[in-house]
Structures are given as C-alpha cells and as structure tokens.
Backbone:
C-alpha cells in the first residue's frame, strides 16, 4: 500500500511540475522585436563595382626546359582546337564561351553562351 501512495504522490508531483513549466513558458517575456534594417538595393550597388573580363584562348603544360627554349619565333601548341569557342572569365571565374571578332580597330568578343553568370540576379 505504501508503494501505491508513493506512486500516486510522484504522479501528482509530476503533474504540478508540468503545470508550473507551462505557466512559466506562457508567462515568460519575449525579447523586444528587432527593428528591420533598411533594405539596400544590392544589385544597384554591385553595378558600380569594376570587374576584369578576360577571354582565355587556352593553355599548355610544358617543362621548365621547354620554357627556357622559347624564343621570338617559337610556337607553343595550346589545348584548344582552332575554331573552338574560347572561355569568358570574370575576375578569373569562367562564366561562358565566346569567339574573337574585330570591333573597329580592336579585337572584341562575341558571346556564344553565359552558363556561369546569373543575369537575373543583376537586374532589379
């Protein structure tokens, strides 16, 4: 019989404790709401940041001995076939492919595709 009372007492204590916990949680003060920071138009700000656009023709892996032998009439074969699109890079990161064109008295690039640049993120 004593076990029943002890069991009944512990159940009652657990119920009281649960009710106190619920009251404490409900009655607890919430932290003051944080005022939202003013929204900045990041795409507009980013438009003024200068970047370096390059057109990578190709590359070649050579030994130091071959490098020392390069002179004014030397030809180094690159890893890109003639006529193949070249890689457009922005600050060293590939963003697409293009081909070389003549623009007035300068060389230019004609964009074939832009796979690595999300233009939607750049417009408001």
Residues:
């Amino acid at each position: 019989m004593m076990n029943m009372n002890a069991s009944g007492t512990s159940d009652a204590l657990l119920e009281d404790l649960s009710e106190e916990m619920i009251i404490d949680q409900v009655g607890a003060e919430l932290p003051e709401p944080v005022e939202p920071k003013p929204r900045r138009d990041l795409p507009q700000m980013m438009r003024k940041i200068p970047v370096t656009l390059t057109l990578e023709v190709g590359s070649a892996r050579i030994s130091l001995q071959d490098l020392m032998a390069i002179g004014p009439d030397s030809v180094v074969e690159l890893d890109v076939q003639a006529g193949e699109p070249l890689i457009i890079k922005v600050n060293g990161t590939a963003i697409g492919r293009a081909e070389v064109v003549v623009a007035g008295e300068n060389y230019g690039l004609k964009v074939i595709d832009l796979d690595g640049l999300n233009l939607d993120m750049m417009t408001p």
